[in-house]
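Progress note, sequence design subtask.
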C-alpha cells in the first residue's frame, strides 16, 4: 500500500513508505497563487501541508525528548531538570517559570497565528476555484483547512482563554483588534466544527465513506465530531458534547474489543477506535520516543544510549484496580502489588518483575533498570519512581536503535469520546441521564473486563469519571488539561508532591517497598492565575486593544 508523507516546514506526517514519497513544502508565503492552484496535486499538497498544526503539536514530535504534558500533572514524573530541553520541574517548582509576558512552557501564540494566517489565505481563495476543480472537491478541502484552523484555536484557547478571532486575511489597517470572550471563542470553534463535519468523509473504515488508502490520515467526520465532543467540554456546552459523541458512533466508530493494548500495538490504520492519529515513518520522519522512554536496562542489554527520563507516579500506578474491580491498597496487596491488576495496568506500566524484551524488569535499587532519588540537577537517566511507562513502546523491537522511532501518536480515539459523553450527560441533567452516562462509562470498563459502576449520586459518578479518564488515557496528554478544565489543578497540584516506590531486594530474593517523595521535598506550584496564562508581551505591544489576562501584572 502506497501512502504519502507531507511536510510543511516542520513535519506533519500522514503516513509513508519510502523517501521518494516525501514532499517537502517550504512556508506557504513563498508560493505564488498560480503555483498552488495549478492542479489538484499542488492544491492537495498545500492543504496537507497545513496539517502541520496537528503534526507538529503531538507530544512525541521532534528530534529531542518528547514533551509529555502529563508530566505537568500528578501522574507522570520527569527526572530531567534542564539537560534535555524539558521544563517540567522548573515549571512546577519555580514561580518565575510563568510571568506576565509569556505562557512559558505553553507559549504558542505566534506560531499558531502564523498558521491561522495561512489557513485564512487558503479559505479566502478556494471558493473561486470551484469551477476549475469541482465544488465537492473544493468543499472537502475547505472543510479540512477549517478543521486545522479550529484545532489551532482550540490549542490557543486552552492556554489563554479568550483570544483574538481572526477569521479572514487581516491587512495592516485591521491589526488592532481586541480579544473575544472565552465563551465567544469556544462558540466559534464549535460552530466551525459543526458546519465543516458534514463536508468530510464519514471515516467508516474500509468503505466508500472513508478516504482511500492513499489519503490515509486525513480528517473525517469522525475526527471532527470527536474533536467537537472534546471542545464542548471546555465550553461546558454539554448538549453539544453529547450530540457530537453520538454522531461519532453513527459514523462507525467503536471500541477495540480485542483488547486495550491492541489499540496502541495493533493495526492502527484499520482500527475503528482510532479517529485521528499522526503517523510516522521509519527512515523518513521519526521521533525519539524509545530513546527517552525505555527502561534504562534496555540500554545495557541492547548496547545503546537511553535517557529514561519519564516515570509514572504512585498516584497513577496505585489507581489501577485489581482485576476483579476492587481498589488496590498497599495494606491489602503489598506483598504482591503487581499481581492480578486490571489489563490497563499491564499495558501502561513497566514495573519490577514485568516481562520485557526477553528479560525481567529490575527497577529496584541496584537492579538492571535501577532506581535513583530525584535531584534538582541534570537528569538521573533512570526511574525515580520505580516505574517506567509501557504505553506506545513495542516489546521485541530494536529497529529504533539505528533508525529511530516511528510509533503512531493517537490524537482522538473513541474511548475518550465515550468518556466525554458520560461527563456531558452527567453535567447536563444527572437525574434524567444517569443511566446513559453510566452506560458510556461502563462500556470503557467492560472492554477491560472490569465490573460496571453503580451509583445514585452525580458527585460519586464524577469521581468515577475522573478516575476512569486518568487510567484510561494515561500518557496520552489529557491529565493536566483535565485538571485545569475541572478547576481542580490548584487542589491537586499546588502545595503537593508526587510519590514513587523505592524497592529493595532482600537476601532471600523477596522485595521490600517504601513509598517515597519523588519531588525531593519540593512543593509544586499551581496558582489560580495559571488557569489562564499571560498573553505575550510582543502581541500586546503591537496591538494596544489586546489586554492581558487577570492576575498577570
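Output:
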Amino acid at each position: 500500500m502506497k501512502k504519502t508523507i507531507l511536510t510543511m516546514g516542520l513535519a506533519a506526517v500522514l503516513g509513508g513508505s519510502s523517501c521518494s514519497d516525501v514532499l517537502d513544502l517550504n512556508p506557504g508565503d513563498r508560493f505564488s497563487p498560480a503555483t498552488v492552484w495549478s492542479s489538484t496535486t499542488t492544491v492537495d499538497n498545500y492543504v496537507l501541508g497545513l496539517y502541520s498544526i496537528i503534526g507538529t503539536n503531538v507530544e512525541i514530535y521532534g528530534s529531542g525528548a518528547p514533551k509529555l504534558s502529563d508530566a505537568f500533572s500528578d501522574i507522570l514524573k520527569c527526572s530531567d531538570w534542564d539537560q534535555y530541553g524539558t521544563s517540567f520541574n522548573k515549571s512546577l517548582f519555580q514561580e518565575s517559570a510563568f510571568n506576565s509576558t509569556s505562557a512559558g512552557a505553553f507559549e504558542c501564540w505566534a506560531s499558531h497565528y502564523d498558521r491561522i494566517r495561512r489557513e485564512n489565505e487558503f479559505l479566502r481563495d478556494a471558493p473561486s476555484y470551484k469551477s476549475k476543480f469541482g465544488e465537492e472537491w473544493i468543499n472537502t478541502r475547505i472543510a479540512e483547512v477549517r478543521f486545522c484552523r479550529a484545532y489551532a484555536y482550540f490549542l490557543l484557547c486552552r492556554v489563554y482563554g479568550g483570544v483574538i478571532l481572526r477569521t479572514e486575511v487581516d491587512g495592516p489597517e485591521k491589526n488592532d483588534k481586541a480579544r473575544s470572550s472565552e465563551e465567544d471563542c469556544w462558540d466559534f470553534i464549535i460552530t466551525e466544527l459543526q458546519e465543516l463535519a458534514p463536508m468530510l468523509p464519514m471515516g467508516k473504515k474500509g468503505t466508500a465513506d472513508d478516504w482511500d488508502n492513499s489519503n490515509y490520515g486525513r480528517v473525517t467526520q469522525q475526527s471532527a465530531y470527536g474533536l467537537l465532543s472534546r471542545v464542548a467540554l471546555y465550553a461546558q456546552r454539554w448538549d453539544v458534547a453529547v450530540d457530537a459523541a453520538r454522531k461519532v458512533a453513527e459514523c462507525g466508530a467503536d471500541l477495540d474489543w480485542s483488547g486495550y493494548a491492541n489499540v496502541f500495538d495493533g493495526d492502527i490504520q484499520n482500527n475503528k477506535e482510532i479517529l485521528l492519529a499522526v503517523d510516522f515513518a521509519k527512515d523518513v520522519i521519526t521521533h525519539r520516543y524509545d530513546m527517552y522512554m525505555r527502561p534504562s536496562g534496555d540500554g545495557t542489554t541492547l548496547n545503546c544510549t537511553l535517557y529514561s527520563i519519564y516515570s509514572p507516579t504512585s498516584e497513577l500506578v496505585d489507581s489501577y484496580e485489581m482485576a476483579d474491580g476492587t481498589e488496590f491498597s498497599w495494606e491489602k496487596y503489598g506483598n504482591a502489588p503487581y499481581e492480578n491488576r486490571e489489563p490497563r495496568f499491564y499495558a501502561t506500566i513497566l514495573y519490577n518483575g514485568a516481562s520485557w524484551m526477553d528479560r525481567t524488569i529490575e527497577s529496584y535499587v541496584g537492579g538492571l533498570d535501577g532506581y535513583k532519588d530525584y535531584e534538582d540537577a541534570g537528569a538521573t537517566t533512570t526511574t525515580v519512581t520505580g516505574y517506567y511507562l509501557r504505553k506506545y513502546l513495542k516489546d521485541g523491537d530494536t529497529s529504533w536503535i539505528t533508525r529511530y522511532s516511528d510509533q503512531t501518536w493517537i490524537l482522538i480515539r473513541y474511548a475518550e469520546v465515550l468518556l466525554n459523553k458520560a461527563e456531558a450527560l452527567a453535567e447536563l441533567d444527572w437525574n434524567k441521564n444517569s443511566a446513559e452516562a453510566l452506560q458510556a462509562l461502563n462500556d470503557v470498563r467492560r472492554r477491560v473486563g472490569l465490573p460496571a459502576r453503580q451509583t445514585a449520586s452525580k458527585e460519586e459518578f464524577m469521581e468515577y469519571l475522573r478516575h476512569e479518564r486518568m487510567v484510561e488515557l494515561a500518557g496520552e496528554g489529557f491529565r493536566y488539561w483535565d485538571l485545569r478544565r475541572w478547576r481542580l489543578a490548584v487542589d491537586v497540584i499546588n502545595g503537593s508532591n508526587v510519590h514513587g516506590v523505592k524497592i529493595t531486594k532482600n537476601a532471600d530474593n523477596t522485595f521490600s517497598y517504601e513509598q517515597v517523595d519523588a519531588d525531593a521535598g519540593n512543593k509544586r506550584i499551581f496558582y489560580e492565575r495559571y488557569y489562564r496564562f499571560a498573553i505575550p508581551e510582543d502581541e500586546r505591544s503591537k496591538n494596544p486593544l489586546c489586554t492581558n489576562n487577570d492576575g498577570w501584572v
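DSSP finds 22 helices and 13 strands in the chain. Work on this subtask will continue into the next period as scheduled.
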